[in-house]
């Protein structure tokens, strides 16, 4: 039997300060019509990535009959840049509100954010709580944090991590005029990019195609954009905005080898969300939706199944999913008691 025909709609949403934001809505129309009560899934990507980071999940959920919206943050992917002074988490929340208002103005929503995308969802909840109260039926925070990002040591130890946090933005800005040269250098010396990707993105081995896709997204993000977003990542505090989701079935998922948004940051979020499943993935790095795509998709599917139930039930506890990357060995899961 042939696979269902896909419908893909791309359009530019205009932010409140006039920046063009690239969006993509994909679905299998026939299947989607059979499940028109399902929420639209809105995927928000992370820092120095773009909507391609959700390629595996987008394909899986479209095949399952969902409408899927992905978009590029300002300065990322196919979106415009705008003023450097507006490269803030608060602005991303405003941008997300514009995306929802112009691309999917009605109906239930499931918001799924990775890293900076999760922060954008928190900023949306802070500035547009009515959207969360009236439309959001499920939320997922993947490898993200509500604050305290200035404490991240990038896996380099406390002392060296402080230097990276303080000097990194300036270094990225200094390299901005040499963007083309740096891209050429990465292409000629793939080991350099592979080392950077492996250190910051993954906690286990991934395919060459996955590593190359991740590297392309990073290298294609303008260094000035990377530099301009860095301060807001370190300074933002959206912990209080999480309370807007206490009534919403949720998922908080992070890898135990995530050096950018460490597991303790996800634990803070999970503690405030009684209806959220808290998942800690062993051998998982920061870009876990690319590293372990089927696992992430499975947990998102489970989230949507719980969201369809009424009333939603409190979760409690941490579910640890152990992923064995060696062939001929299965995955297994254990459930621990609620953390103290």
How would you describe this structure in keywords?
340 residues; alpha/beta; 10-stranded mixed β-sheet; 13 helices; 42% helix; disordered C terminus
Strand order of the largest sheet: 1-2-4-3-5-6-7-8-9-10
Category by helix and strand content = alpha/beta
Number of helices: 13
Cα-to-Cα separation, first versus last residue? 51 Å
Helix content: 40-55%
Radius of gyration: 19 Å
Largest sheet: 10 strands, mixed
Question: Whole-number average pLDDT?
Answer: 83
Coarse shape: globular
Beta-strand percentage range: 15-25%
Number of strands: 10
Q: SSE string, helix = H, strand = E?
A: EEHEHEHEHHEHHHHHEHEHHEE
Low-confidence stretches: 155-164, 324-340
Set down the secondary structure blueprint:
Blueprint: E1 7-14, E2 20-27, H1 29-34, E3 40-44, H2 55-63, E4 68-71, H3 89-103, E5 109-114, H4 116-127, H5 129-135, E6 136-142, H6 158-175, H7 179-188, H8 190-201, H9 208-220, H10 223-235, E7 250-255, H11 263-271, E8 276-282, H12 288-291, H13 293-307, E9 318-322, E10 332-335
Parallel strand pairs: 3-4, 3-5, 5-6, 6-7, 7-8, 8-9
Antiparallel strand pairs: 1-2, 2-4, 9-10
Helix pairs in contact: 2-13, 3-4, 4-5, 6-10, 7-8, 8-9
